[in-house]
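haha ok so turns out i had the wrong file open the whole time. this is the CORRECT one, sorry everyone. sequence first:
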Amino acid sequence: MSLQCGIVGLPNVGKSTLFNALSNAKAEAANYPFCTIEPNVGVITVPDTRLQVLEGLVKPQRVLPTVIEFVDIAGLVKGASKGEGLGNKFLANIREVDAIIHVVRCFADDNVVHVAGGVDPVFDKEVIDNELQLKDLESVDKKVAKTERTAKSGDAKAKKELATLLHYQERLQAGKNARSLSVPREDREAVADLHLLTIKPVIYVANVDEGSILTGNAYVAALKAAVADEGAEVVVVCAALEAQIAEIADLEERALFLEEYGLKQSGLSKLIKASYALLDLITYFTAGEKEVRAWTIRKGFKAPQAAGVIHSDFERGFIKAEVIKLPDYQAYKTEVACREAGKVAIEGKDYVVEDGDIMHFRFNV
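then structure:
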C-alpha cells in the first residue's frame, strides 16, 4: 500500500528545506517564491526498529522496509483558487495525495522574505485554508445545481444526496474545512467524486528555529490554538536542523547529534508516526531466509486483505494465515522453535491483523 503525503505551505516557510532533509530527491531551496515548480516526490523508507530485530533473528539475504512518499508541491498565494500564481497546478497536485502536511512558518528571520511581510502562522494557515475552501465550494456548488434538478423530479436518492451536499456547502461558505463536518460514512458518497481538498486529513508542521525545538514558542502556541477545534496534530520541527541530521549517515553519530539537542527522535520519525496515526495505518511483517519485509495496511484489515497487499492472488485464493507475535519470535529465536512451542497461530478469513504481526499466508489459485 503506497502512502503519499503532500507538503504544502506558503512560499518561504521551509517546505523545500524540510523535503530535502526528508528525502534523497533534492528540490531546489531558494529565497524566493515558486522555486519548486514541478512536484518533487521523495520515496522515503520508514524507520522501524522491529525490522532490525527480525534481521538479527532471521539473518535474511535482504531487508525491505515499507516506504512513504512525500510530495513537495509548489508554493501557494492568495488567489490560487482563481488561478493566481501556480494555483490551478498546485490544487490539482493536492488532489492526488492521501494526506496533507501543512508547513507553517513559526520562526523569525529577517534574511528570509515572508510573502505577507511578517510572521503570522495563523494568517498563513488561513490563506491556504481559504483557497482550498473556495475551490471545494466551487465543486460543491456545481454538483448542488445538478443534483437539485434531479431531486425536483422526485428522485429519493437525489434528495438524500442533495441534503448532504447542502451541509458541505454551508460549512464551506462559513469558512470551515470539509473535514470538520461530521457525516455518516454512507453519506460521504455524495462528495466522493468531487475529491474535495479540505476533506483530506492534515498534519500541521510548525517550522521553528533551533532554540524553540524543545519548548516551542509564541508562534507555535498561536497555531495550536487556531487548529484546536480541528482535532489536528501539530508537529514541531526545525527544518534547518533536519537538514543537518540528514547529512549524517552513521546511525550512532546521528543519535549523538540528536542527544546534543535533547531530541529522542528526528522530525522525520515524528512526521511518519503522525502520518500513520492520522491515516489509521499499521505494519505487519513477512520473514524468511530470502527476505524480511515490512508491509503497510489499514488498521482493521482482515487477513485476506492484508495478503492482498502482497499480491491480489494471495487475497483471491486465501486459505489461512500463520501468525507469530514478535515477542514470541524474540523469546524462541526461530520459526521452528515457535512452532514447537505452539506459538504459531493458524488464523482464518476473519482474523484482524495486529500491528507487528509476523505472517505467512497459505493460498491456492
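Residues 121-152 form the longest helix (32 residues).
again sry for the mixup
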